[in-house]
Amino acid sequence: MINTLQSHNHAEESRHLNESSVLKKNDPLSTALTTMKLRAFISVALDAGGEWAVDFPAYEGFTLNVVQKGECWLSTGETRKLRLRSGDCFLVTGGKPFTLASDLSRSQRDRAEQLFMQAKEGVAVCNGGGQFFVVGIIFRFQGHLPSLLFSRLPAVIHIDGNSDHAAAFRWSLERFSAEMRNAGLGRSLILSHLAPITLLQMLRLYLSSAAAEENWLQALAHPRLSKVLEAMQTEYKRAWSLDQLADLAQMSRSGFALNFKKIVGVPPLVYLANWRMQIACELLQAGDQSLASIATQVGYDSESAFSTAFVRIVKCRPGAYRTNLLQSSAG
Known about the structure:
Jelly Rolls, 12 strands
């Protein structure tokens, strides 16, 4: 009996240790979104009726929307127009303006900002409402890294509400919509957790169904490049060379450099430098460390080398960046 109990305890300890190690090991996407300080800002819902058209501004970050009723057209100013139906989900990327309309040729249009200023109980009404209903979430990030990583994503990522892929999406979206209308205790905390989950699910579905597009998300799914991205994002202090990164990817030096830039959009060491500066900005924001200490933490041998790289990427000196942060927080 004692031996059995001891074996059970050892098994339980082993299971908890394994679970702990799994939880501590972040994947490259989770690490990146955490480093870029992913935050969700809930926008009001839109209720439209009759003939209507609404122009939305270029929100900073991503805009995730769920059509809960009716149909409409979506345009981002590009050649492709998209027909949206009840149950569809769509993500507008890169801070691009877009239009939702019953008819895109309609000349009389409302501005989303004006409609939202008159929203009641979280719902903006256009032309009486009643025929079309959409709920949106605005996701924002901090720092310069998002513009680099997301610049090559498609303008719109669309998930058909009737597709098999959308099934994994529905629970989070339905819960989010219910909590948005609910005033119960814990609402804010639930929404703050559900919103990132919905975004991650959308990005996963995009990766599983997208064509051979070349962007940062596709690099995360690449069997060789993903190892390199994970290494640079977690061991950014290390003095990586192109040869070392190529060896990690199990590719030739020239083949690795070519493929990395083709898919991600920038050379490997440029990516590493930008990642380091994102971390440096976070350390500067904390405000309790010297520039020399921060330089060492992000992989630079001297404060001058760090400052030169910071100015090249962030477009201002580290000291000025910190001062601006302190002044803005004081104001």
